[in-house]
Amino acid sequence: AGINFSLAAFNLLPGFPLDGGRLLRAVVWRFSGDYLWASRLASAMGQFAAFGLIAAGLLGGLPGWGGDALSGLWFAMVGLFLYSAAVDGYRMARLHADLQDRTVRDFMIATVAALASDLTVEATRAYGTLWNTRVPAAVLHDGRLVGLVGAEQLRSVPWDQEGQTSLASIMVPVSETACVSPDTPVLLALERFGEAGLGVLPVVENGEVVGMLTLDTVLRQLRSRPHGPAGASPR
């Protein structure tokens, strides 16, 4: 019972990502209306609690402080974990704030090759860049998107079979659920990456492929743009 009480009390410390930290963030967010600032405060409190645990662990493991090295190491490891989680929690909150009003249109690659499914691998050599880019081409059948094909799939075909191998036989099939529209919120699109199991999402508008969205593109643009001021809550 004593151990359970100690764990419950520890979890209520006002530092993210502990329950107490989440409660602190919710209260500050409620009264300030600023989700990012509330997250920063909760993260800072979590880091402060983490440093306290690390210090307690290091001191407790020293001779003459009434502890032992194993217990001290355990406290220090918990502190390191809490610190890492607090920092990551704020990073995720900032990412959420940066993306909350952005759509796929802001990040998609608009220039995309669209190839017929019965086209041979040999014929794609006319599209030289397709063999040397990370952005795949859309594979169409009767004007409908059925898959993606990129350099990895093309290079998997032996050179003496390129003339007999169609794109339909090597493409990565794509279902409609893996597609997004230019107006899809980019936060929703990021969730689709995991659901679809693909490194790229086709962007479809009015039945036509108008671009591709890659996770690398989103992250690269976020790194290159300055962060604006702390904003309102995510929707």
Automatic annotation (TrEMBL):
Gene Ontology, cellular component aspect: membrane
Organism superkingdom: Bacteria
Pfam families in the record: CBS, Peptidase_M50
Recorded topology in the membrane: Multi-pass membrane protein
Cofactor needs: Zn(2+)
Domain CBS: 171-230
SMART domains tied to this protein: CBS
Subcellular location: Membrane
Organism lineage string: Bacteria, Pseudomonadati, Thermomicrobiota, Thermomicrobia, Thermomicrobia incertae sedis
Species, as recorded: Thermorudis sp
InterPro entries: CBS_dom, CBS_dom_sf, Peptidase_M50
GO molecular function, one term: metal ion binding
Annotated GO biological process: proteolysis
TM spans (from-to): 48-66, 72-90
Protein name, as recorded: CBS domain-containing protein
Tagged with keyword Transmembrane: yes
Keywords recorded for this protein, A-Z: CBS domain, Hydrolase, Membrane, Metal-binding, Metalloprotease, Protease, Transmembrane, Transmembrane helix, Zinc
Record's keyword annotation contains Zinc: yes
PROSITE patterns given in the database record: CBS
Family: Belongs to the peptidase M50B family.
